[in-house]
Structure formats: structure tokens, C-alpha cells
Amino acid sequence: MIKGITFTRSIDSPTDVERLASLLEALGFERGKSECGKSWNGSTRSGHSFAAPLGALELIHGKQSTEGADKIPLLDTSGEIYIEVSSLDSIYHHIESWFQASPSGGLAVLGEITETADEFRRFSAMPIPGFFVTFWEWSHPLKGKPLAIEGDLSAEGMRFAIVVARWNAVITERLLQGALDALYRSGAKKLDVEILRVPGAWEIPSAARRIAETGDVDAIITLGVLLRGETAHYEAIYNEVSRGIGQSQQETGVPHAFGVLTCETLEQALDRAGLKAGNKGFESACAAIEMVSLHRKIDSPITGIRPPRRY
């Protein structure tokens, strides 16, 4: 029974492996979708595994012949690996910036965007010697699917604040760990994630609004839990908390991910905090990442819907 398909590529230099891995991560490839996990080491080989929505690419460093390793071939515009993207110009500028930030002594090569007779646009890149990859997109924006701007799940370079309630810590701590897991897996740095603890769910909107107004974060993740119990207190608190978080998001323009659980029982809350029904903290963090990415694309003159700014 076929489970999937993986293409492997052997690379002589461990430095080149890490360099290429950093580029794939910056482009949004997801680590750890093979049986080997995120990274692996053996007696003769080590490597990293990456996954794309339609297929997988595995990088390998192994003991192999170095004959002819000093010969760097010219850039082949056909490429050895084709990666379909939704915004070719954005990817091109992203890779161009990455090349400038990660110099390799002139060995990296980036081709120009060209139009083909098959009605698609493409460009080829050689981020490390001997490794060719071609990025492409259909020339017609509606080819195969409606045109849409969507956020990516890459948190690299983004700053986040997590506002988490201490009340019912057995639940909220699980939500917090889920949110941190999502952020770090997606490329966020620990120094770019600030955690703010408040007494309970009632205090979440106030803290979220204050941190949003500083302009120091790109998105805020709100985590808490409300249990119905046997009084009307639950309804009053929930209405004000949800209203306050929504108002803060609308008035500051900073995305607020809603991770406040509203449950009938403690058992239901545990299930939604990672026990049986996923982790709401993880889901909220993913939503925050996607919204920051979407906001940036909307504001970008390359990928967004606004015309280029003129100064």
C-alpha cells in the first residue's frame, strides 16, 4: 500500500546541506514528514527531511566520491526539481534577499524570470553548487483555481505576544505549550515571542489591547478557559471577553487569535487542550501566523491588492 513519495538528493558538503535547508525553511517547507523525522544521523549519512503540500524533498549528506566536485556547472534553466508557487515574483525577491543575506563566495546563481511557450513563468536557482531548482507558476492567474491571496505558515521574522490566563492552569498551560510548539515549528525565534500572564479570562482583553498599542508585535494569541458551571456568570464573562478581544483587533489593526475555550465541563476543556480534540492553542498560533502573512501580502506592492506606493 503506497503511503507517499520521497525524492532524495545527496550533497557532499554538510555546510551546503545546512545552507540549503535554511533556504527551504525560509520558503515555508515543513520539516519532519518522513519516517526519519526532522533530522537524522547514521554511521555514514545524516540529513534533513522536508515536505511540500504535493510531494517531499529529502536532503542527504553522505560519504561519496569527490571526483569532479570542484567543477561547478553552469545554471541549467530547466532545473532538476520543479516547485509550483502561487506568487513567483514574491518567491524570486525572497530568494534574492536570502542570497544577499547568505553569501557563498559567488557560487550561488539566480536566473531571471522567463515566460515559456507552455503558458507558465519560471526561474531557476542554484543555491549551492550542483543543486538546481526551478520555481514556476501559470501565466494565467485563474489557471486551475480561483485567484486568491492566502497567508503562509512561516513565522520567520514575525513577533508574537501570547496573553494567557492563570485561572484553570491545568488547561491554559496545555494551550500555551501548544501555541509555543506551533510558533517554534514554523520558524519563530524564542526572543520574538513574549508571554504575558493575567489572572483570568476577564483580564485578557485589557492586556491584549495594551500590548497591541505598543506596536511591538505582529500578532497576539489569547489563551484562556471559561467553564459554564451552574450560574449565569459564564455568559457575562464570555460576552465581554470576546467583545473586548474583537474590539482590540479591529481598532489596533493587529491580528488577535482567539484561543479562549468555552466549555460545559472540565473534561471538555481537557479534550480541546490536546487530549482528544486537538489543541486550541496550537490552532490559534497557526491562525496568528497566517494572518500576519496575509496582512503583509496585502500591503506588498508585489503580491498584494494595493497599487505600488509612489514617493
Explain this structure to me?
The structure is a single chain. The chain is α/β, with parallel strands linked by helices and about 300 residues long. Helix content is about 35%, strand content about 25%. The chain has seven helices and 14 strands. The strands form three sheets. Strands 1, 2, 3, 4 and 5 form a five-stranded mixed sheet that branches. Strands 6, 7, 8, 9 and 10 form a five-stranded mixed sheet that branches. A four-stranded parallel sheet has the order 12-11-13-14, sandwiched between helices. The termini are far apart. The model is unreliable at about 65-80 and about 305-310 (pLDDT under 50).
Mean pLDDT value: 79
Strand content: 25-35%
Give the biggest beta sheet.
Answer: 5 strands, mixed
Percent of residues in helices: 25-40%
Tally of extended strands?
A: 14
Alpha-beta classification: alpha/beta
Alpha-carbon Rg, integer: 23 Å
Count helical runs: 7
Distance N to C terminus? 59 Å
Listing every helix as H and every strand as E from the N terminus to the C terminus, the arrangement reads: EHEEEEEHEEEEEHEHEHEHH
Shape: elongated
Uncertain parts: 64-79, 307-311
